[in-house]
Specification:
By secondary structure, the chain is an alpha+beta fold. Strands 1-2-3-4 form a 4-stranded antiparallel β-sheet, with no helix packed on it.
Length: 459
């Protein structure tokens, strides 16, 4: 017996020397101290409200409550919380009770029988002494898993909101383009009618009349294509909302509200550290760290106390009069598992290394994503200004060409090409503006996150 306890003590002392993992320092990641551009607009988790569209806000908030993807994530969160509660039960002792009753009969020859009715009640209380932190690390891993799912759900919400905003902006753009096309079609139809009068009077060639008719058919085809785009976007929105397209009740305006000012970007490390995807990667790493501690603790003895009490009696009133009580110290130590425990520790450490790299990569990728969007926004604004400049020049050109055509100096085809070129520029301007709004959506989504917290307390 003395040798046994000496063996346990030696194992325990060795266990105190186990190696711990080292969490990475975010300050050592090589990222810039500030972003290339910054504004003054403050942004919170509900970033879509900066667009000042009540319809967009309604769609997003409805989807966040009712969309199938969000319900799936909510179920996942409930599952992880239940698992964490189950792991947390190890902090308390387990209590079990059992009761029995029965009749014992004795048969003897010749024809003599006797019987005895007995009842028993047994109660046991067991508690594991978590000397090596095995149960604590298991609880921590489960708690970190809850936070992982929480921020994964938050990230899914941000993605869903971004996709809905993209659909909304594209639908407004399509609506605006259809309005421009209808106006151009009406103008061209009026022009065509006047051309037919001139043609009937012999003042216009057949070629000019056919060109204008072809132009009307071309505008009509573009309008049909825009209608197809609108239906596609509505169907995409319905999928995101988790409803049928016929259930969507939309009020699509012709123009968007002015683009919000550039948000305040802040310090890159602080900004990306509160992003849901980065927080998810962080807590995945902490969960893996706790799993390493659990795997190491599994290689050392499990020590538990068991207190049991039992009573026996023939009558219920005598049940509580006398008890047999036992207090036991249980020690279970792994002696040889064929390398299983060592392999589990190596596996857990490898997973921790993987999660560490993934978190570092998430931080770096987030900064790059934000810088990419900022650069694209700057170039997109230049592109929009270029289109507007071309539109102004095109309008002046059309005024001169129309005068020359009416004077018979130039062909109708040159005038028609100039009109169609202007129409194309106006449609491209609408598309370019909505792309700017979508880029701004991506930027707001990329920097949105919960208020910054001190993650040191989670280590």
């Amino acid at each position: 017996m003395k040798v046994f306890f000496l063996f346990i003590i030696i194992i325990s002392l060795v266990g105190c020397q186990r190696t711990k993992t080292t969490l990475p320092d975010s300050k050592k990641i090589n990222i810039p101290e500030k972003f290339s551009y910054s504004g003054s607009l403050k942004v919170d988790m509900q970033w879509w409200k900066v667009f000042k569209s009540s319809e967009l806000t309604r769609l997003i908030e409805t989807a966040l409550k009712n969309a199938p993807d969000m319900k799936i994530m909510s179920a996942r969160l409930k599952t992880s919380i239940a698992i964490a509660k189950k792991a947390g039960a190890t902090r308390f002792p387990s209590v079990d009770a059992s009761g029995k009753s029965g009749l014992t009969g004795i048969y003897t020859v010749p024809d003599k029988t006797s019987g005895q009715f007995t009842m028993s009640l047994d109660i046991s209380v067991s508690y594991e002494l978590d000397i090596w932190g095995r149960a604590a690390s298991q609880r921590k891993s489960a708690e970190m898993d809850v936070l992982t799912v929480k921020y994964d759900m938050m990230g899914s919400a941000m993605t869903l909101a971004g996709e809905i905003a993209g659909c909304w902006f594209r639908m407004v753009s399509i609506n605006r383009r259809m309005e421009i096309l209808k106006k151009q079609y009406k103008t061209s139809s009026t022009y065509h009618e006047s051309q037919k009068i001139k043609f009937d009077s012999g003042l216009l060639e057949t070629l000019d009349l056919l060109q204008q008719k072809q132009n009307l058919a071309s505008i009509q085809a573009i309008m049909t294509s825009a209608e197809v785009e609108m239906e596609t976007e509505k169907n995409r929105l319905a999928v995101l909302m988790g409803v049928l397209p016929t259930e969507l009740k939309l009020k699509i305006p012709l123009v968007l509200e002015p683009l919000p000012e550039l948000p305040h970007m802040g310090v890159p490390l602080q900004v990306v550290s509160r992003r849901p995807d980065v927080l998810k990667a962080w807590y995945e790493m902490l969960s893996a760290d706790a799993s390493v501690a659990h795997a190491v603790a599994d290689a050392f003895p499990k020590i538990s106390l068991t207190l049991s009490a039992g009573t026996r009696a023939e009558k219920i009133r005598d049940m509580l009069k006398s008890w047999l009580v036992n207090l036991l110290l249980n020690v279970t130590a792994p002696v040889w598992r064929g390398g299983e425990l060592k392999a589990e520790i190596e596996r857990a450490k490898a997973v921790f290394e993987e999660k560490t790299v993934r978190w570092q990569q998430a931080v770096i990728s987030s900064v790059i994503d934000i810088e990419t969007i900022l650069a694209k926004e700057k170039l997109q604004k230049k592109y929009i200004e270029s289109i507007r400049e071309q539109i102004e020049l095109s309008k002046k050109f059309i005024g001169d060409i129309e005068y020359r055509y009416k004077q018979g100096i130039t062909d109708f085809s040159i005038y028609l090409n100039a009109v169609n070129y202007l129409l194309g520029l106006e449609l491209n301007l609408v598309k370019a503006r909505v792309e700017l709004y979508i880029l701004r959506t991506g930027l707001l989504k990329a920097i949105a996150g919960p208020p910054e917290k001190n993650k040191d307390k989670d280590k």
